[in-house]
Amino acid sequence: MKIKPVKQKREPGYPTIETYIDHPELLSRNIPLAWIKNQYAATTLATFIICSCGNQASSGKAKSESIVMADSFSKDQKPKSVQNVKKDSVKIARIFSHGDGSGAIGCEVMSPPVFISEDEARKIIFDALKAENIVFDTNDCQVLKFSAPDIASDCFSMEKGKQKKTTKVELKMDGYNAEHNLAIEFVSIADFEKFKDENDRCMSSVQGYDTKKAAELIREELRLHSKTNAAVFYDPLPLVKYKENIRWDKNEKETQKEAREQLLAQVKDFIDWIKKEGIIKK
Q1: Tell me, what DSSP letter sits at residue 73?
Q2: In Å, how far from its chain's centre is CA 217?
Q3: Domain span at 185
């Protein structure tokens, strides 16, 4: 028998950690029969599941009260693929973590982050997905309108335990694919700025950024209300690492390359996810 290299690895036949992250309810559905028959184990499990459900219900209620959303598209009517879509059939990708997505500029900041422009980010994302035969429309895209914490404020409350203010956020998704009912969003610095109260008059010599946090808030809004499959990417914001005897501009170029690689890693994880979820064929 001639030995041949394996060209395609097999997917594991058991649920992975990513599966449980996306579908936490699977844990309660896959309890071993021996545990159920055991009185002590069954009682403990029942208590655990009931408490977990209670926590989820209370947190879900709090979120629904604090977040208001208007699901609309840029045109008068939604695409046909979105009409009559059942909410239960929609799949929202988790945030694929590559890069801290946080940093600051101004004042005495010694290691500023490197930013990716929206145009460059879209090219990285769209090119990678085009290789999977997924092409996006950038005009007829979903518009999100919701309330969220004012995470872009430059001011910090001195009162212990005081919660951040909420602000109204409106942003248009970056792309939509009707064939797979799939929308994507890249959180740029400009998008992060939308999480700032327009009435905020606070001035600061330092500007902080947290695109990953903004992506998480957008993702949660989509999870609660979206009628399209969706994913949210974010600017990784790697910090410039200064090295001795190397010019500053060369350090910056190396960090720019790192930023592109981290964003591409987010997209590659997303492609693996949509294949596992059956949104596209493997």
Answers
A1: E
A2: 8
A3: 68-156+163-276
CB 211 within 8 A of CB 191: yes
The encoded tokens of residue 100 equal 């801290």
As for how many domains the chain has, the answer is 2
pTM for the whole thing?
Answer: 0.67
- The yes-or-no verdict on residue 67 having pLDDT over 50 is no
pLDDT in tens, 22-34: 666 666 666 666 6
Q: Distance between CA 152 and CA 193 in Å, rounded? A: 6
Contact residues for 25 (Cβ-Cβ < 8 A; gap 6+): none
Are both 52 and 172 inside the same structural domain? no
Is there a domain that residue 224 lies in? yes
Is 234 within the bounds of a domain?
yes
Structural domain includes residue 118: yes
- Nearest residue to 260 via CA among 100, 121, 97: 121
User: What is the helix (H) or strand (E) element at residue 40, kind and residue range?
Assistant: helix 39-66
Note whether 248 and 199 are same-domain residues.
Answer: yes
Q: Grade residue 64 by pLDDT with cuts at 50, 70 and 90.
A: very low
